Amino acid sequence: MLTVPGAVSAGIEPTGNCIGAPARFTVETFSAGRGQIEVIILNPKGATEKCTVTFNNDRNLTYTCVYTPTMEGHYKVIVKFAGHEIPKSPFNVGIEGAAGDATKCKAYGPGIEKTGVMVNKKTYFEVSTKGAGVGIVDVAVLDPHGHKDTVKPLVVQKSDELWYIEYTAVEMGLHSVNVFFAGKAVPNSPFGVGVSPGMSHRAVAADFLFNCRHVCCLQLCRLWSEIAFV
């Protein structure tokens, strides 16, 4: 079965895409068998527009599809595999006016800090698009090997001007967090994030016992001090 993961489907969303901004989406073919991907983009006038389809050569056998709308109105995105349309195809995509200004966006939060992110522990960050205009926030996280299918970020629009993103790294090392708005990188993107090993249950328990002993020692010291000066 083919799927279009929600985390990387900005280019087929019904709203948020705009003229001149690259619209991206990814198609997974891991469990679909053999076949070729075909993408047809129809603009509001019924004419076809170019779509670049790139095979990512990853373990989920994904294809990244990118097209750039040239006019406002309702586009139709038809996706076929082995000659047959995939589930939910065709996708109806509303294209709005000129793309917003990615330079006015601001990304912040622990998920894009250089340190502090740990393996198998969920992290997050937010993107403010206040004053940036029309556009969709899109995020791709590359693992230390450059693969972008290992970590699948969840992108949620909390309000008209605020987006929430969370992800879980599954291995140690330097990750690249790429954040886009209206098809363009936001300031300081990509963010280099060093992922460290998480603490084991044994380490957590040892740390807890150490802290307990430290607190007990302090309490005993205070008690002896009070007795000594009585």
UniProtKB/TrEMBL annotation:
Keywords: Repeat. GO terms for biological process: actin cytoskeleton organization. Gene3D superfamilies: Immunoglobulins (2.60.40.10). Transmembrane segments: none annotated. InterPro entries: Filamin, Filamin/ABP280_repeat-like, Filamin/ABP280_rpt, Ig-like_fold, Ig_E-set. One of its GO terms (molecular function) is actin filament binding. Filamin repeats lie at residues 7-95, 97-195. This is Filamin. The keyword Transcription does not apply. It holds the Pfam family Filamin. Coiled coil: none annotated. The keyword Repeat applies. It comes from Ridgeia piscesae. Belongs to the filamin family. It comes from the Eukaryota.
